[in-house]
Give the backbone structure.
Amino acid sequence: MGENVMTKKKSNRMAEISLGVMGAGFVATLPFSGTGLALLQGGFEAGLVGGLADWFAVTALFRHPLRIPIPHTALLPKNRDKMTKAITTMVETELLNQESIRSKIKQIRITDIVLQKLRESVSTEPFQKGIAGVLETAVRSLPADTVAEYAKRLLARFLDHLDEEELLNKLIKGIISNDYDEKALDFGLERAKQWAELDSTREFLGSMAMQRVSEIEVNGLMKFAMGAFMGYFNEEKLGAVLQTFILDKITELQVSDHQDRYKLLFFFQKELLSLAKSPSLLSELSRLKNVVIEKGTESGRINTMTERGLEYLASYIGSDEFRTELLVPFLEKMMAEIDRRPELANRAEDWIQEQIVNLMEKHYSKIGELVQENLNKLDNDSLIAFIEDKVGHDLQWIRVNGAVCGFVVGLILTGTKLLLG
């Protein structure tokens, strides 16, 4: 700014000096009009006229020369509205027309710039903390009541569309395909074996067996045989026989390829599959589902769980573990996927370009309005000072050139006149 002021003052001084030189030269040569200095007098005279004419023309652009309201002077203040409109129209139709802006925008690959910046920033801690901070703030800004209501509607919709029979079928088939039935059988057999090996179990079996045998009513030979049997076996012997039998059977069922084990497993699987079609079980499941929908959506437990879940999620997002375990791997994977599939970046670029163009077209008139608004903020004196600051240097050189050119033309014309006598 200081350099412009110095240049302006220098050009003004040059214009004044040139005009002064022409005037002084003309006055100095007046007494010698009939001598050889007449040639110089003619040059100085024409230079003075040219300098004064150009001074008048330059001054008339901005103000009345010598403050005399001469017609067709002070052109800029008088034609301000026309000039403002012309500048606005020129900006809108020539300098910043829609086509030129659209063409320039298309030359810029915005996605490439953004992706490059992401690649440079993804490994930096400030960038990671910035992303995590935005996500944490977003989570903490979520209204827990609204989220809870949405969760309730989602739960109700899910349960309402739940097919009980299909669910049971999948559950049972999952049990069978993952051998959970065999594992349950092995667990039951192992616990039964532990129970059967107990002394108290042997005593219990012997006592129960003797009691049942003594309750049998027989006559004749069978009564004699039963008496002999009870005379030979006591509770301890009979309990030991039953205990051994049970343990042997459990051992057989624990053998993976024993046919009794196959039969037992087949029975279990058949019964399990029949459960999926049990009307009473399906009816009970449907009733329980409706209870869950009714009670679950009315209770405050979901609200409490939602509040705790959001708080936990926000705390986790703000932790270093989230950045190192989830955020950074996700960003790196996303960048690798974009590099592997350039059509994703191309689609994003097309979308961004379209949005920018739409935004530009929607608010394009604002450019002209902004130019006009800024010009209207300047009063006449400020506008003149602004233009003089920008082009005043060149305008002052017009005055210098007018004086110099007039001087040269004056020399030529006076010389021609002298030659022609």
The first helix runs from residue 2 to 29. The mean pLDDT is 80. The chain is about 85% helix and 0% strand.
